[in-house]
Design brief:
GO terms for molecular function: sodium:proton antiporter activity; xenobiotic transmembrane transporter activity. The protein is mostly helical and 400 residues long. It contains 15 helices and no strands.
């Protein structure tokens, strides 16, 4: 592979990976404007974010089999086309329930980009090079939450919230064209691959019943649910409770993303001295302590803008260690069925996250209490499962 082709593939695969995060984060600064425009509450606008998470969760399960049956490009084109059409209608929405439904459809379409990108990395690069490429894509994935809400804040202030969906529509169209002209057909269609529900469901069940996967997928999903609670609740907390403007909110969101992205980069250094299980245990204890103190401050009415940012920064920092180690341990038992395990991991993570985001909207009371409570509860549950599992079963290490 020539250098030019290498960097072209990285560019296009990176853009596919970034589409989902941009679709989630870019419209967050517009929550108040959307609520006013559609005659509803900010909490109801938050349900459009929860429906997006549900769509991504289900899409993880949908596209895995389709990519194996029809090759990589046809399902990718179909998903991106669905995304573009749904985004066009989001831009024209006049009712919050319509927007909630359209965001679900938009998510199902965007999920094709992320799942196809991961599959094509395996197709186009050797095993050793794939790890390097995936790390580059994860860096793109991590940078997206820093760029998207900041850009979204400026777009909303200048052109209004509907312009966000115009930008996402253009982004989706550009990515579709890049995929058509610059990505090869990296995997041939397999006419023998069954799309019947029975074999697919049995395959998922066989993965789900492996004890190590079962435990660590719930540890990871519950720990990660606090991130979805934060993303869903942060527009209310920062813009409605603390009255920061849309541009400042974007910068706060970017700053807090540094904790999750930056501190997770030290994980490889810690793994030279400690096991993943040890890192998870300490990080989860940190999450629980931060979550409970955060909830206590919220209940007592002691939160300020600075203390809220401090608690969230610490929580996201701990999550930066919990998330990669729990995901790696969940995937460790699979020499085969790694694709099925990966899609099931993503679906459960996003499904639990969608419940967390819905909970923040459902119990919204104009304070940080719902967000803090869900962060605390999900962290406590993750730690409890981790300790219970450790007493009964020694997990397979990543080197076995």
């Amino acid at each position: 592979m020539t250098k030019r082709k290498y960097f072209t593939y990285i560019l296009v695969l990176g853009s596919l990976t970034a589409l989902g995060p941009f679709s989630i984060d870019m419209y967050l600064p517009g929550f108040e404007d959307i609520a006013r425009s559609l005659g509803t509450s900010v909490a109801n606008v938050g349900l459009s974010l929860a429906s997006y998470f549900v769509g991504i969760s289900l899409g993880q399960l949908l596209y895995g089999p389709l990519l194996d049956r029809y090759g990589r490009k046809k399902p990718l084109y179909a998903g991106l086309s669905l995304y573009i059409v749904a985004t066009m209608f989001c831009m024209q929405a006049r009712d919050i329930n319509v927007l909630i439904a359209l965001r679900f459809i938009q998510a199902v379409g965007s999920c094709a980009a992320q799942v196809a990108a991961m599959a094509m990395v395996r197709d186009l690069f050797g095993p050793k090079e794939s790890a390097k490429v995936l790390s580059l894509l994860l860096l793109v994935l991590g940078a997206s939450p820093m760029i998207a809400p900041t850009a979204g804040g400026y777009i909303v202030v200048t052109w209004g919230w509907r312009a966000i969906f115009l930008v996402l529509l253009i982004l989706g169209a550009v990515i579709l064209l890049l995929s058509i002209f610059f990505l090869p057909d990296s995997y041939p269609a397999d006419v023998h691959f069954s799309l019947k529900p029975g074999p697919i469901i049995r395959n998922f069940i066989s993965v789900f019943l492996i004890p190590q996967f079962l435990i660590y997928v719930f540890v990871q999903s519950l720990a990660f649910a606090g991130l979805f609670a934060y993303v869903s609740g942060s527009p209310v907390v920062f813009m409605s409770v603390f009255h920061v403007d849309k541009k400042v909110y974007g910068w706060i969101f970017a700053f807090l993303s540094v904790a999750f992205i930056g501190l997770s980069q030290f994980n490889s250094l810690l793994l030279r001295r400690y096991t993943s299980q040890q890192i998870i245990r300490v990080a989860l204890i940190g999450q629980v302590v931060v979550g409970l103190v955060f909830w206590g401050f919220a209940q007592a009415g002691w939160l300020s803008l600075t203390s809220t940012m401090g608690f969230l920064f610490l929580f996201l920092g701990c999550l930066g260690y919990t998330n990669p180690n729990a995901a790696a341990l969940a995937m460790a038992p699979f020499a085969k069925n790694a694709g099925t395990a990966s899609s099931l991991l993503g679906a459960l993570q996003l499904g639990v996250g969608a419940l967390a985001a819905t909970g923040v909207s459902a119990f919204a009371d104009g304070t940080a209490r719902p967000m803090a409570a869900i962060i605390a509860v999900t962290s406590v549950l993750a730690l409890g499962i981790s300790f219970f599992h450790h007493r009964r079963y020694v997990p397979r290490t990543l080197n076995e």
